[in-house]
Write the structure tokens for this entry.
Amino acid sequence: MAGSGTAHLRGHDDVVLRVEHLVMEFPAGRHQVVHAVSDVSFDIRRGETLGIVGESGCGKSTTARNIVQLPPPTSGRVVLDPGTDQEAELTALVGEDLRQVRPRLQMIFQDPISSLNPRRRVRDIVGEGLHIWAGGSDDEQIRARVDEVLDAVGIDPTVAANRRPHEFSGGQCQRISIARAVVLEPEILICDEPVSALDVSVQAQILNLLEEMKDRYGLTLVFISHDLSVVHNVSDRVIVMYLGKVCEVGGADTLYSAPAHPYTRVLLASAPEPASTVDESESAIGDEIPSPIDPPSGCRFRTRCPRAEARCADEEPMMRSVGDDHFVACHFPSLG
Amino acid sequence: MAGALLTVRDLSVGFLTEQGLVRAVDGVSFDLEPGQTLGVVGESGSGKSVTAKALMNLLPSYAQVRGTVDFDGRNVFAMAANKEKHFWGVEMTMVFQDPMTSLNPVKKVGEQITESLRVHLRRSRRDALAEAGDLLEQVGIPEPGKRLTQYPHELSGGLRQRVVIAMALACGPRLLIADEPTTALDVTVQKHILDLLDDLRRARGMAMILITHDLGVVKGRADEVMVMYAGHTMEEAPTATLFAEMRHPYTEALLETIPRIDTPSHTRLVPIPGRPPEVIDVLDGCPFAPRCRYSIARCLTDQPGLTSHGAGHLCACHAPVGTPSGIQARSANESAGTTAAGLDMGQFTRNVPVADLGQSGAEG
């Protein structure tokens, strides 16, 4: 896209989270503004895994943080369970009302070691949410529940519950982070680069574990990563972002087998082992990502795009359908 | 070997710590011909970076280094650092992972590139600056004249790594060691940098050691690949051979555990259970045995040495993949449901949680 539009939204049909026209701007001094996320819309169905992929600075982590209102976006709407009696418009809530909704959304982060408090024991880390939210449960019930979840993520509670994070490897700490997130039975689990800091031999364990947790606890996942192969593996639907905009949205297999946006094609051609659907020579673009303080007019990708024409500078492309559950924001997409 | 530019024999590096002796590198040997690329693949703790630092004489003084390293017939470890300062940085140079920390933030790019030219080759300031401009052009930096007067923070990550490469190439090295040169960079930039290194290597007839954790990076770029695990060489082979007929179970497991870009979504990944060993423990057997689908009783007691599996193909395994002993070991493990090391074979196929806490409990 580097385009806008909402053609890819899917109505109320079992949608668990809808994000509309999300904008996040940070002040950069001297009256300048960083346009981190600019008019991004998407929705997620219950039980779906939504992958968000893009290079550093594309706004994928900011989008995730805006969903949980940490910090709240500059403008736009984030609605949980739209059209149901559980509906909560997160962007309209403040204070205690917002706090009451928070357990329905949980996050896990890239660095598993720094996301756990080094001074606390695993049992207290995982059980803290329950102590706050599980009104009526006594300590024994909470203890049993923590043990059950630790066991589910492959950590033996009898050995590990009284230890502190430094006694565990990165993969084990990520398991504990997952336990802490799922113990509250959230509706949505947001994973921000959850395997990027792990060794390749441990990565598959965590990806498989996330799939198991999703089945077991009926989770909906938002999975953010720069690694195209990992995103393809875990996702039902994928969003490709560039410089704060959405380029392309589609079912994971559709998007990888018939990439329509030039940027998606560049990403797929740049992987260490390029995808078979694109030609390796398509990776030849400039290295320089434009500044988000002064993003290009029209399509934000045009300065690096091999297909850019005059129209791309004048007119921002809007999201449009190019196939079954496949949307692209480009004036000149590749159509199979 | 005659004609080899670099000959490494039985290189071992140990660090004495409070917990005991850490054997970071344990008996690594290889040869590198002029103009060739050796890919070294391994996870964190495999000893790949320590090997590179040993070659570059960058290890701290308390490191216990054994073995020999010959560069063009000269014994590298016998060279005194102060007398042979025109060796490191001139004939053998290195590019590191993080381009920001490899550059001095308070010196201009031009000063940093010309430093080695002025010190090692005794160029005048003016000549060195002209040469630095040429180098920046060679590494694909637009407007080299302007970049020379900029500071590192004014450049993007990709440009910084190109500057670091220009610095490494300044004195015309015969061997370039690139330690995870693209891990900190975005995917679109990563490919450009790897291609640049390959082009420069060809143009200059330079040899290269490319260190990475990603088998995909060495595929198609290295002439030979060495797979390291826990300080040991597990397998070494010409690149095409390695991917076509891998013999070591660890190499096979690494390839199977990484998601492929083209496989359909929700394809279950074959996990490698457990985690890399602490190199403090002295292992009697093969370091990979506790995580290996092929392990047999002998793997636990008897460390396998490198044996030949065809031209230039070495593998350290008692039950190599695709050989009669390997096929038999795996099928025996499958029918027993467990390996000699007590690994549950079911987890490779069934949908069960895989505990990397496993047998040992927490890391101590």
Notes: Chain B has a mean pLDDT of 88. Chain B touches chain A through 49 residues (CB under 8 Å). The CA atoms of residues 112 and 167 of chain B lie 7 Å apart.
